[in-house]
Structures are given as C-alpha cells and as structure tokens.
C-alpha cells in the first residue's frame, strides 16, 4: 500500500492549550417508516420486471453493485440473485464503481468484499474487469464507455441508493443515472464525466447515461432510499426509461432525511471517521460545510473554522479520500491511507483538492489542541467545539458548553450528560467518543 511517513513532531506550546469540557447530546433526525421485509420487497420488484420476464430462459443477467456502504446491501444483492434465478435466468455480479478500488479489477472485487459482497454471500459469480466497450458519443463529444462484461449480458440490473451528491446540488445527483454513466463506465467512463470539472455533472453525466440507456441491455433499476439512521425507507423497481424521473423524485425524498447538526457555525468540528462507505467524498459537505472546490463556493452554513479528522472507517479499506477537506489529522490516520486509491480517485474525478494531506500531528491530543488553539475562538474554553462519529452518524454528538444554548434552542436535541473532560490514553489517543458505545 503506497503511503508516506511523517515524523512525530512535538510543539511545546500545545501542551498549554486547555480543551473545553463537553456534553453528550442526543439529536432527533427525521426517521420515516423503515421497510420491514427488505428481501421480499426486492424480490417482488425483480419478479415484476416485464423486460426480465420476456428474456429467454438461461439468459445471463449482470447485476451492477457499487462501492457505497448501503444498508443491508448483502441482503439486497442476494435477493436479486435469487429472484433472477426464479425467473429462469443466470445471474452474475459486476462491480459498478468507476475508478474505485485503485482502478483495478482486483481492487474492485476487494471493495465488494469489504461490503460483505462475496460470491458465497451473493450466491453468484463476480466478473470484474476494467475493460470497456464504446457505446457512442454524447452531443458534447464525450465517449460513452461501458463495462465489457455487462455489455455482453442479455440484461442488466442496476442497483444504487438515491441520495444527495457530496459536493453540490442539482436536479439529479447520486442514483441510478449516475451508476449507469459513471459506475458502469469504469475508470474510462468516470474520466469522461469528470474531465471538464463540476459542470460536467449538469451536462455530460446525463448525456452519457442517455447513450448507455439506449445502447446497453439495461432491464431494471433497483432504487434505494435511506433515512438518517441508515434504515431503508424506499425500495423501488424502475424501468430504464424511468431512471431520470425516478432519480428526481426520490432525491427529494432522500434529502428530507439528511442528518444535520442543530447549529450553523462552529469554531471546530472533529470527525472521528471518514470513508467512502460514509460519503463519496469521505465527509458530506451538507454536514461539515466544505466542498472546497475553486469553481463552486462553500455553503455559508454549516461553517467550521477548523476541521480535524481522527480516523478512517474499516470498510473504506485505506481509501482516505476527503482528508484534504481537513485542517488537521494524525500520523495514525495517514499511515492507514492508501495513496494509490485516493490519488486514483482524484486523478479520475479531477477534484484533486480532496486528496491533499493536511497538517499531520503525532497523536489525537496534539491534533485537538492545535484545532482549538487555531480556531479563532476568543479563548480555549469558549471554543464552539463539536465531535461527530462521521457525517453519516449524527444521533449522538459531543459539544462544548459554548454550543449548548443553541443546541437546546433548536428543539431537536437535548443534552444527555453533564459536562466532562475529554479522556486520552497515555499515548495521546482519544478515548471519549461521540457515541458512548464506541468509547474505549
């Protein structure tokens, strides 16, 4: 795994920084009604597909699964496989994740494995390749590339979560359309989308999806929506001609469930984990307030003067994309980052800012002291400081006393502890965590 070594530098003045006491706070997020029978709902959607039912028995069906940590995705994948076989068809899996996994077939299989998507779990073979076929050009001149194994199938089932994009707003963001244009386009297709920068998502991505939908044997989409608790609240089978309208409609529903902090401005935000399973950009800008793209302004709120990252999720597998959005991190974090993966993502997406390495300090304690001392607060103890597990997990947070009145005034949060001092191991590792169950 390509990485870089950072020296454990010490700065004596940081030892004088006082970290403010924190309280544990419970947040109320919009829940909705979760789907009780996920496998049954998915099975019904597959069995209802007119295109699949019209195919000759024994026809091969490619099931496109991506790199996101979708709730119950092994259950969903297995239910699709079983339903396809029930129709008398022959299923196989293709990784549909653009350039993720370091842009290699083996790396993409490994990404699926980390999500619990193995051949044994799914009951079907995985056929991974970075080879693509060319399906034609868009009006803008972009070439539509498409997974070679999927293109040879008699039918394709596209599976994806519909959600907001991790960088900016538009009518269609992450969903079935993006999976067709980017995920199934592999690394070459992803480069076609990103080549001209963020505006490509408005013009090039939809056009590439149109070409693929007209030329590839796409038979069905399985569209998924989660709430803030990572529960599935919508599962729909979508005919390919309805991908665009379905994405628009379900995106509005998905955005109504986005978890948010109960305040707009912070002096400092500490993120315990980032990862591709959490957000495509490691951290969701709608929660932490930074996209940091030169061509697109950050939203005025939420705003954090300083952002610190203290870890990577296990499922991200060394893909620390998004670390460039932080101001501080630790040697432990950068030691776990696979530079090949984050550089591949940035070179493909052209969003190079997200792979830059911030100031790297020797441990959590030093990183937090640096965060507080540079956060522009009037003094250490009055710092408006917030700790979150990740931008996806916001049911519990830790806040300093300076944020308490605003949290209580929001009407959707309440303190569930008295103030306490942050705890650290002798090596300077943070032991206090946003979720009490995560504490060492």
Automatic annotation (TrEMBL):
Domain of life where this protein originates: Bacteria
Protein name: LarA-like N-terminal domain-containing protein
